[in-house]
Amino acid sequence: MAPVAQWPALDRVAGDLEGQVYRVMRDRILQGQMPPGQRLLSTRMLALSLGVARSTVVKAYERLKAEGYLQSTTGSATRVAAFTTPPLQGQAAPATLSPMPVVEGAGGGLFEPGVPDVSAFPHAAWARHLGARGRSLRVHDLGYGAHSGIRELREAILDHISATRGVIARPEQLLIVPSTGAAIDLLARVLLRADRSDGTVAWMEEPGYATAQALLRMAGADLVPVPCDQAGIDVGRAAGPPPRLIYVTPSHQYPTGVTMSLPRRLALLEFARANGSVVLEDDYDSEFQYASRPIAALQGIDRGEVVAYLGTFSKTLAPGLRVAYAVVPSWLVSEAAAAQRLRGAVVPIHIQAALADFIREGRFRAHLRYMNAVYATRMAAAVSALRLRCGDRLEIGEGAGGLQLAGWFRDAGIDDRAVVQRINAQGFALRAMSALHLGPPRPGLLFGIARMAPEAADAAAAKIARLIKPGSSGG
């Protein structure tokens, strides 16, 4: 570890010396300043150097071990745990990451899109925070006042997405909601009203997220598909009157996986500003990037207050937590918050408080780094296996990020829905790309990689290869 002289001075007036030692070491591990395998000073030596009781350092070490930052065996030195190192750019995750098995019964089948792996969820740490907050909620948090989210969680989320996604906002602009779907529904119903002069037209990426399509329709939207290519949505190719709302997934387009180019981003923002449109930026799994750092959010370069940024913990932690958020333009806060309260789209206070602590203490960031490495390994294995086994029939995407992988049939006349029906009858849960189009479809298959163990990918891909052959019954 770094020389003790380089440590920040412990604040003895503030107390909690154990927590201060813990946080310094945790942050250095997370920032890569203490690399995997590095040997730590003995608890006695560090205690002497810092001028604290040995028990203080022992408890800090034990806390770090319990949370997985450190590892040790009897008779050997304590070292930084291997898995805390993020994968090298452009490479698979380190071999020290043991692949987790496919979680049977947690979803509909193999290669299921949209389902994260929750088997590595940090149950013990979460339970501690949840229990502590459940026992000590403040009286003013138990009333109706925090319907849009407690300030602690708003600030914690903003600190995170400001640092990792480049989002620029104030806590008051952030609404805590049960899901991204709830956020889309809420904002669509506020923005798309037939009594407004700008109407109910909404533009949707083509192909695009089917759930968003359905929610916008339910809110009364007149949907207009706008083509996406390798540079993302192209507003210059849209037809008809200007929209009130534009739904996009710019950092990792669903389902193609492409990243919207800077020229397209600037064109979209300028178009929205000039036409009074609101852009819904759905950033649901963009924190998972395997060959580079995550690209900054569209919201961060919006200077016209036209972007509402949507994020969720369903993919990064667990869907069962039912926590997502929307960062809305300042001019929309009052109306959106009123609609949220009216619709009751709220998250229980003890869940919010526990999540705020979970983020503040660095546990969310550690879990995210770990899962990014796990998913990188799985994506690399899936891409390799599918290209090897199915490359003659499917054009497989790059798999540079996210939890799903696009595959396009080289034969544009194939019925992908029939193919998916045949494949899924054999224990898979793929989606047909044609189901994600509003206009004429391009046939293909959508794969989920989150729960596919690397060692199982080749056998699964080989079985799919047999099933997509003309006339195959999969026998």
TrEMBL record:
<dbReference type="GO" id="GO:0030170">
    <property type="term" value="F:pyridoxal phosphate binding"/>
</dbReference>
<protein>
    <submittedName>
        <fullName>GntR family transcriptional regulator/MocR family aminotransferase</fullName>
    </submittedName>
</protein>
<keyword id="KW-0805">Transcription regulation</keyword>
<dbReference type="Pfam" id="PF00155">
    <property type="entry name" value="Aminotran_1_2"/>
</dbReference>
<dbReference type="GO" id="GO:0003700">
    <property type="term" value="F:DNA-binding transcription factor activity"/>
</dbReference>
<dbReference type="InterPro" id="IPR000524">
    <property type="entry name" value="Tscrpt_reg_HTH_GntR"/>
</dbReference>
<keyword id="KW-0804">Transcription</keyword>
<comment type="similarity">
    <text>In the C-terminal section; belongs to the class-I pyridoxal-phosphate-dependent aminotransferase family.</text>
</comment>
<keyword id="KW-0238">DNA-binding</keyword>
<dbReference type="InterPro" id="IPR004839">
    <property type="entry name" value="Aminotransferase_I/II_large"/>
</dbReference>
<keyword id="KW-0663">Pyridoxal phosphate</keyword>
<dbReference type="InterPro" id="IPR051446">
    <property type="entry name" value="HTH_trans_reg/aminotransferase"/>
</dbReference>
<keyword id="KW-0808">Transferase</keyword>
<feature type="domain" description="HTH gntR-type">
    <location>
        <begin position="15"/>
        <end position="83"/>
    </location>
</feature>
<dbReference type="GO" id="GO:0008483">
    <property type="term" value="F:transaminase activity"/>
</dbReference>
<keyword id="KW-0032">Aminotransferase</keyword>
<dbReference type="InterPro" id="IPR015421">
    <property type="entry name" value="PyrdxlP-dep_Trfase_major"/>
</dbReference>
<dbReference type="InterPro" id="IPR036388">
    <property type="entry name" value="WH-like_DNA-bd_sf"/>
</dbReference>
<dbReference type="InterPro" id="IPR015424">
    <property type="entry name" value="PyrdxlP-dep_Trfase"/>
</dbReference>
<dbReference type="Pfam" id="PF00392">
    <property type="entry name" value="GntR"/>
</dbReference>
<dbReference type="InterPro" id="IPR036390">
    <property type="entry name" value="WH_DNA-bd_sf"/>
</dbReference>
<dbReference type="GO" id="GO:0003677">
    <property type="term" value="F:DNA binding"/>
</dbReference>
